[in-house]
Design brief:
Radius of gyration of chain A: 13 Å
Oligomer: heterodimer
Largest sheet of chain A: 7 strands, mixed
Number of helices of chain B: 0
Structural class of chain A: mainly beta
Largest sheet of chain B: 6 strands, mixed
Number of strands of chain A: 11
Largest interface: A-B, 27 and 27 residues
Strand content of chain B: over 45%
Order of helices and strands of chain A: EEEEEEEEEEE
Helix content of chain A: under 10%
Strand content of chain A: over 45%
Distance between the termini of chain B: 37 Å
Number of helices of chain A: 0
Radius of gyration of chain B: 13 Å
Shape of chain A: globular
Structural class of chain B: mainly beta
Amino acid sequence: DGGITQSPKYLFRKEGQNVTLSCEQNLNHDAMYWYRQDPGQGLRLIYYSQIVNDFQKGDIAEGYSVSREKKESFPLTVTSAQKNPTAFYLCASTSGTGDQPQHFGDGTRLSIL
Amino acid sequence: QKEVEQDPGPLSVPEGAIVSLNCTYSNSAFQYFMWYRQYSRKGPELLMYTYSSGNKEDGRFTAQVDKSSKYISLFIRDSQPSDSATYLCAMKQSGRRALTFGSGTRLQVQP
C-alpha cells in the first residue's frame, strides 16, 4: 500500500536534546512538507522540499532543521533551540506542479520530559 | 486577523442530520480549496479538493466555494457517528506550495 509513514508515534525530549522525526513516503511524490499542529490551531508550515537536496523555510522554521538526501525521505530535527517543541508534527507529500492536494502521515506527538 | 477563519465548535448534531461547516478567508489570491477530516491522534485525510468557485459533490459530501464572498462550505448529508472528527479547511494560491489552514471545527454526531 502506498502512503506516508511517520515514526515514532510518540517521542519524548529532554532539555537540551536534539531529536529527529522520521518521514518516509512510497508514493513517488516530489514534494514533501513538515507541519506543526498545536491544540485548537491550524497546521503551520515548518519546512518544505520540492526536490532532493533542496528545501525552503516555512512560517515557523526557527529551532528546526531538515535534510532531503533521498526522494522518499524527509527527516525533521527538533533542536534544543526550539523552546516550545511540545506539539503534534505532521509530514505531507504531493506530486506534480504543487497544485495537487497534499496527503498526510499519521503524525508524531513530541513531548518534553 | 487570521487569513482563514473557522468556528472551532464543537458542533453537536443527531445522526442523520445535514451538517454545514464553513470557513471565511481574506486573501483573494487563494484558488485551491480543500477539506480534510482528522480523527483524534491521526493525520488529516483529504475529503474534497476544488479549484475556483462552484460546487463539487462526492457521495454524502458537497463542497461549495463562493470566491466573491470569500466563503467556503462543506455539507455532510445523512451524518453518521463515524463522521465525528475535526474538519479542517485549507487553501492555497496557484503555483505556491504552502497551504493555509483554518483552526478546525470539531463535529460530534450523536447516535
